[in-house]
Amino acid sequence: STVNQYQQAVIAVNRFGLGARPNELEQAVVNPKRWLLKQMTSPQFDTRLSDNQLVNTALAFRQFSAHRASRVMRNKMQNDMAANAKSATVKKIGIANTAKQMRQTQKQLLTDSLWQSVETSQPFSVRLLDFFSNHFSVSSSTAQLKVLAPLLEREAIAPHLFGRFEDMLIAVVKHPAMLLYLDNAQSTGPNSVVGRKTKARANKGRGLNENLAREILELHTLGVDGGYRISDIQNLAKAISGWSISHPKDAKQKGFVYRENMHEPGTRMVLGKKYTQ
Asked: Region 160-165: what's the mean pLDDT?
């Protein structure tokens, strides 16, 4: 009936979408299911800033690298008692400029995402993107993450929004934002090449980090009562040890890097299945 179709349209634009925009309810009422199905494509983001600079992980790393280099130079200046006040001021200005650039990039990314939600003709897709962005949430609590965190949904989540969940999961876990946020970038197997060297030097700064492995099982996939054990977390952490990011000083920034010399060698059992290298 017409009434029933109108009710379906209301459900489509409100429960599946973001609330009816002008003329949106009229479009949906013609065929509510088809209206939703037509939206099942990933949202397209503006990949360039106002200065026409490409916004991606490489830009984030360049900005963070510049910021880090400025801080290193400042610390050297502070430790050099012979440095004059003028030079120290110049270095402080350099740090402030790089920090400002990162804040501007973060602001532009967040603003673009907001306007995407306001002006979109794909409210169902944007709402689904919001759901998975919350599911795979990261914090912008550090200098690196201020720029990398907004890129997670653009580079890892959106492209897989209507594909396979496992592809989205892998893309998210390998994204620099997630690797940094959950401390896997420095996770080092105790029996890896690096692990054995640091152990010999009694260096306690490196070791196996279980944060990401725990969140993969507890939050991203199986849930708190998902039937896994602490041994599954530990073995998964070993499996993804060496999953890291390129160094700021690297000439080419590509984000994810597998560091074999940090990976824990050997066979491991995860959720009752044996994995060998």
From this structure: 96
Run of H or E residues at 270: strand 268-270
Q: Is the dihedral of CA 175, 180, 183, 189 positive or negative?
A: positive
Q: What is the 3-state secondary structure (H, E, C) of 154-172?
A: HHHHHHHCCCCHHHHHHHH
**Token pair listed for 277:** 């290298």
* pLDDT above 80: residue 258: yes
Identify the CA nearest to 161 among candidates 268, 40, 78: 40
User: How sure is the predictor about 12, in pLDDT bands with cuts at 50, 70 and 90?
Assistant: very high
Instruction: Provide the pLDDT confidence category of residue 242 given band limits of 50, 70 and 90.
Output: very high
**Are 134 and 158 a contacting pair, CB within 8 Å?**
no
Are 98 and 70 in contact, with CB atoms under 8 Å apart?
yes
Cβ partners under 8 Å of residue 108, min gap 6: 49, 50, 55
pLDDT in tens, 59-97: 888 887 777 777 767 667 666 655 555 555 545 555 677
Q: Rounded to whole angstroms, what are the CA distances from 110 to 31, 152, 214, 250?
A: 33, 12, 28, 27
Going from the C-alpha of 183 to that of each of 97, 172, 214, the distances in angstroms are: 27, 14, 12
Q: What is the dihedral of CA 256, 261, 266, 268, to 10 degrees?
A: -30
CA angle, residues 141, 143, 146, in degrees to nearest 5: 65
